[in-house]
Each structure stands twice: as C-alpha cells, then as structure tokens.
Amino acid sequence: MRLKEEKNNELESKVHELELTIKHFEEIIKNKEIQLTTQIELAKVYKEKNIISEELIKEKNKQISDLKIQISRNHNKENLEVNNNSKKIIEEFVNPLPSNREFNLPIKQTEIINHEDSDNIFMKYMDVNCIGKTTDAYMVKLPGVEKFVLPCDSKIVGSGWTVIQRRQDGTENFNRNWTDYQRGFGNIRTEFFIGLEKLYLITNAQPHYLYIYLEDFNNDIRYATYQNFAIDNEHESYALKTLGEYSGNAENALLTHKNKKFSTPDHYVDNAFNCAENYNSGWWFNDDCYLCNLNAPYVRGNDENSNGIEWRTWHFRPLKFVQMMIKPKTIK
C-alpha cells in the first residue's frame, strides 16, 4: 500500500511538473504571437510612411523648381538682389528630401501639434513610442510636459517596449516627495522612474501592455504581463485605473493594488496609516499597504520581510533587479 502511494505521489509530481512546463510554453507562445502581431502592424506603418515620403519629396522638389524659375525671372527683369525673405525661402528648400524609400525621421525630439499642415504628416510618425526602436534612448515631447528622454528595451521580451521604471543597484533614492514622482527622477541608464504625469498621458492616449521583469538575489527570474494598463489623472492621484488580463509566472500581486491611488510620504490618500512614510517609497498602496512594492528601498540579501523591493506572491525576499515596461497594443 505504501509503495502504491509513493508511486501515485511520484506520478502526481511528474504531472504537476508537466503542467508547469506546458504553462511556461503557452506563455512563450503568447508573447511570440504578440511580437508577430506587432511586426505585421509595423510593416503596414512603414508602407504608409514610404507613400507619404514619396509624395512629400515630389511636392518639395516642385516648390524648389518653382522658386528657381521665379528667382530667374526676377533677375532678368530687374537685376535686383534677392531680399532677406527670399534668402530664407531658398535656404529652406535648397536641400530636398532624400529620395530613398526609407522614411527616416529625426530622433532629436518629438512634438505633437494641432494645426493641419505638411509638417503634421512628419510629426505624426516621429518618436512617440518604442515600436521599431532598438535598446536606446530617444527624445520625446508630449502635450503638457517638457521634452524628456524615453528609454526603449528590445532585449528582455522583444522590441517595442518603453521602460517606465528600473531598479538595479540602489544608486537612486526612491523615497521621494509627490512632485518628484509626478515629474519623474533618476538616471535612465541605471535607476529611474518616468513620472506619473507622463505615464498618465502615454497610457491614456491608447491601450498599453504592461510587462514587469523580476530577478532576485539567487538569480531566479519571474515576470508578470498585463493586457490593458493605464493610470488616472492628477485629480484622481494617478490611481491604478486598469490592468487587464494577467499572465506570467510571478502570480498576480499587482491586482490587489488596482484602483488604488498613488501615495508618497508627503501625499497619502485613502489610508489612515501612511504606508508611503512607513515603507519609505511612493506606490499604489492598498488597504494592507502592499502585496508588491517595486519602489521600496533597495535591500541586498535574502532576508524575508526586509521591507525592500518585493513581489510577495512570489516570495517575501528582496529583489535584485526590477524593470517595468509598457508597449502600445496597436500602432497608431
């Protein structure tokens, strides 16, 4: 009888291992499907860009030709020097757009504008997200905020991901006030937080995935993916408005923080107990303070309940490396 029980236990253990393996491969397939969909959409956008580019090249070259004819006529009739106005026009048009089929847009800055003109065609396709970008940093301008650097990551889970937060060595202090968390802080090459106002503007412009990468001091890795991430506006204290469907192997710790407002030591809401002050960080604290806190103080080691960076549905030990990333669900 005992031998039979042992065999049954062994069989159940193997079945459980197989179930975990199948689940892991299902997650990989799901992520690959997302990447494939993104690449297909990206190809469509590139095709549209090429068409727009060719039309703009034709139009600009025509304007150059018309200007040359006009200047030549004026010269023959009156033999007058070109005035300052004409010089500016010439300088603007003497360098036609490149005739290659690659629609290379300037990286120096991105600006969203409201008026309808030819420049608007260019601005529409400048760097407002990380779709098609390599692991690097790009200058971005969004309505209502100063231009800022947007870091992209194509290494962890494929291309197209914008990094919004990173913890890796404790060099940056995350025990900040409300203004700092609202504006963003840190070094995008190491540890930083993108800023709540920017995050609100980006995630409310269109639906976004959220991907959270977690690594502990044993070099074990987990992840959590959410299908529809967005936060609310300043009036609502940038509450964690929506998460969407969860997938991953870290378990769904962030769910308990959904609809919770963001708190900092000098700006806490909903809780009589100031979780932000007691845990030295800004976060979407829940009624019990947290089940995960990725902005907590950086604590080295494997001591449980250290009040460091934690994802408690995985374990209660501090994490060594954390990266939060977002990605548009569709390409606009």
TrEMBL record:
Recite the UniProt keywords alphabetically. Answer: Coiled coil
The domain of life is: Eukaryota
Pfam families on file: Fibrinogen_C
Q: Which residue windows are coiled coil? A: 1-35
Domain (Fibrinogen C-terminal): residue spans on this chain: 121-330
Q: GO cellular component terms?
A: extracellular space
What InterPro entries would the database entry show? Fibrinogen-like_C, Fibrinogen_a/b/g_C_1, Fibrinogen_a/b/g_C_dom, Fibrinogen_C-term_domain
Read off the SMART domains from this record: FBG
Name the SUPFAM superfamilies on file: Fibrinogen C-terminal domain-like (SSF56496)
Membrane spanning segments where? none
Can you say what this protein is called?
Fibrinogen-like protein 1
Q: Say which species the protein is native to.
A: Drosophila albomicans (Fruit fly)
Gene responsible for this protein: LOC117564681
